[in-house]
Amino acid sequence: MKQFMDRDFMLSTECAKRLYHDYAEKMPILDYHCHISPKEIAIDRKFENITQMWLNADHYKWRQMRANGVEEYYITGNAPDWEKFQKLAETLEKAVGNPLYHWCHLELQRYFGYNGILNKRTAEEVWNYCNQKIRHKAMSVRGIIRQSNVALICTTDDPADDLAWHKKIAKDDSFSVFVFPTWRPDRAMNIEKPDYLEYLETLGRVSKVSIHSFHTLMEALKHRLDFFASMGCRISDHGLEYVMYHPCGEEEIETIFAKRYRGEVLSKEEELRFKTRFLLEMGEEYHNRDWAMQLHYGCRRDNNTLAYRALGADSGFDCINNDTPTEELAGFLNDLNETGHLPRTILYSLNPNDNAVIGTLLGCFQDSSAVGKIQQGSAWWFNDHKTGMREQMISLANLGLLGNFIGMLTDSRSFLSYTRHEYFRRILCDFIGGLVERGEYPADDEALEKMIKGISFENAVRYFGFDLAGV
């Protein structure tokens, strides 16, 4: 019987161990998609206890606690932090096979030096031990980032954001990690939302453009794109139910916008036509600016209406959507490609059944303008577990070029989530090491080193075009 989560955790062959310890383990982290707060980096937040680190805004943990029958009072409510932690510990010991179990213990090992097991019986010991460690300077937000060997972070930001915290970070010479914004224009695109017209007023105010038409909306967004670019942004991101393709012309898009601007309700078809045109216009802008475009889709959000009314969005009530039409995704990419405006694009479907679809669609739009121009993103959200990551790698290897893969991201609101990169790298090395051990790929040290370092870090640096000289 192997020791629980030892040095060679998840590495089942000698080649896998060598690939991880010699190459992957030492590589920096480029976290090109996350939801952490730039404010907390700017002020170098200090946490009072491990509950604040672990349970604030972490819907992964919230879902499992609810599944264990824990009252909401101990999850998102006003229960004392110790009692919340105790309920989490009671839940965690039942999470056998869940990535949350591994993530939590990796975090305990890497950041706190605790190599024991967290459960109901040890909860008080772990609570006291970790809270002593949290007092140290190395456990501030910036301390955690530094000891995680992070080279660059891309947060997720609305076009109307003034990026004031990014400005403070950029001017602070005491912090050497690059922190850039990512352009996330969902609120400008979601024309059906009740607060859409209010949002246009905000966007118009910060862009100094009076928004009264689709044309002026695009003008305002271009002003904000310029501002984001001046702050180092090179990546966009869209959160979509699915990638739609219902094209429309100039006159029709203005008619649709005018109808919504008057406060009228759009039909579903009008909504889809607006969103299609919006995405196409944005895609052209990204291409012209040499930005990469991320498309996250396949999620059905806020399924529990009562919980949504009580707690709001991003509180743990989303699921995988099985309606992700390939025909429309292909049409969208083809439209941009036909006009010569298809940017480097990363496709993430929350539905693992889409792995092969994405894997085959990638090959339809690759070209010499970039290595791996169209990417399948790493296994996302409900799929960033051992099985999901491995299946995504296998599918990508079967249908494309795994060696050009840009690798892992945290997609998290937690500053301790950098261990997910370790988790990913161990799974990657185990997969590739297994191929070598079985004679399915040569034991070519030079090629293997380049591949592992590339997928772990270097491919993403090249793909996004970040200048990390000296890292």
Structure overview:
There is one protein chain. It is built from 20 helices and nine strands. It is an alpha/beta fold. A four-stranded parallel sheet has the order 4-5-8-9, with helices on one face. Strands 1-2-3 form a three-stranded parallel sheet. Helix 9 (164-171) links the parallel strand 2 (150-154) and strand 3.
Task: Give me a quick take on this structure.
With 471 residues, the chain is α/β, with parallel strands linked by helices.
Strand content: 5-15%
What does the radius of gyration come to? 23 Å
How many DSSP E strands?
Answer: 9
- Written as H for each helix and E for each strand, in order along the chain, the element string is HEHHHHHHHEHEHHHEHHEEHEHEHEHHH
Shape: globular
Which spans of ≥5 residues are poorly predicted at pLDDT below 50? none
Q: Biggest sheet, in brief?
A: 4 strands, parallel
Structural class: alpha/beta
The main sheet orders its strands as 4-5-8-9
Structure keywords:
single chain, 471 residues, 49% helix, 4-stranded parallel β-sheet, alpha/beta, 3-stranded parallel β-sheet
